[in-house]
Design a protein that fits this description.
Elements (H helix, E strand, L loop, with lengths): L1 H52 L4 H52 L4 H57 L1
Helix pairs in contact: 1-3, 2-3
């Protein structure tokens, strides 16, 4: 009865940890998405303003549009590669967790008494929690890194647009 209750407690702890990691992953992804959307909105607004007031020359407008599209493509590529990296990291973590679970199950089967079972399960729970927290931090770092890298090409285009807006005003 005590083992069943202990297992339920462990399952509850693991479920809480899983929820925490999922929240961290979701937060990182949402932060990256918000940053990307903000940059896209800012670029679009700057582009619209600049195109109405400054781009009278078709060649200049065409070149700027091409460069903006290139920046968005580059940003999207960086974003996709970042999510690929995060996905690979999560899959690797899941694989390692499964392997550790199998090893722990084998160890439990080889235990000679209840105390040994409890010790093995406690070690497994503690190690699983530590790995889960580390992986959550790693995924959050990936999300922030990807968001920053994906925004760089767009920010560069915003800077170009701002320069074009203020250049005629200074002349």
């Amino acid at each position: 009865m005590s083992v069943v209750k202990s297992n339920k407690s462990r399952e509850e702890a693991v479920n809480q940890i899983r929820g925490s990691v999922e929240d961290q992953v979701r937060f990182g992804s949402e932060a990256a998405q918000r940053g990307f959307e903000q940059a896209a909105t800012l670029t679009r607004e700057q582009f619209d303003k600049a195109s109405k007031t400054l781009f009278k020359n078709y060649e200049e407008f065409s070149q700027l549009s091409k460069e903006n599209i290139d920046a968005f493509v580059k940003s999207g590529t960086i974003f996709a590669k970042g999510f690929e990296e995060a996905g690979k990291s999560w899959i690797d973590f899941t694989r390692r967790s499964f392997e550790n679970s199998v090893e722990t199950a084998k160890a439990v089967m080889g235990c000679k008494d209840l105390r040994e079972v409890v010790d093995v399960q406690s070690d497994f729970a503690r190690e699983s929690f530590d790995r889960l927290m580390n992986e959550g931090s790693k995924l959050s770092e990936i999300g922030v890194k990807v968001a920053n890298e994906a925004l760089e090409p767009i920010q560069a285009r915003v800077n170009v647009a701002v320069e074009k807006i203020f250049k005629p005003a200074a002349v």
